[in-house]
Amino acid sequence: MSVLVPQPNEEVLEALDARYFTESFDPVAHMLENLPEIKDELNVFMRTEISAVDVAKDVILTKLQDDVRANYNALIQGMKVVQDVDLDLVRAQIHVKNGRRLLATAKHDLIMRYDVAEYLLVWTVPGY
């Protein structure tokens, strides 16, 4: 990849080695394997590599920003759906709490009425 001749973004992306995008890729080992053996060439090699990596980084960041911008509306819509689901879950939780409270109250009232009915039945019905 030449740093002196500007390349279109597509060419920069195509020139990148696919190994760069794997988890097992070790950039330090890769760089050490490709270092020139002649000391005088090392400075030029390092500057060229740094410039090429900076250009590739800028191209990748630009592409990523373009992808985010292109999908911004879908992202916002998805976030709104998540917010709506969260609100629905909070409302459902409130309804469940109220339902449980009402059931507990109804159970308590039913037990109390049963006890009162049984008490009245014992005292009013002879031989019970």
TrEMBL record:
The keyword Ligase does not apply. Residues 13-110 form the Vacuolar protein sorting-associated protein 54 N-terminal domain. One of its GO terms (molecular function) is SNARE binding. InterPro entries: VPS50, VPS54_N. Transmembrane segments: none annotated. One of its GO terms (biological process) is endocytic recycling. One of its GO terms (cellular component) is EARP complex. Keywords: Coiled coil, Protein transport, Transport. Pfam families: Vps54_N. PANTHER family: SYNDETIN. This is Sulfatase-modifying factor 2. It comes from Phytophthora nicotianae (Potato buckeye rot agent).
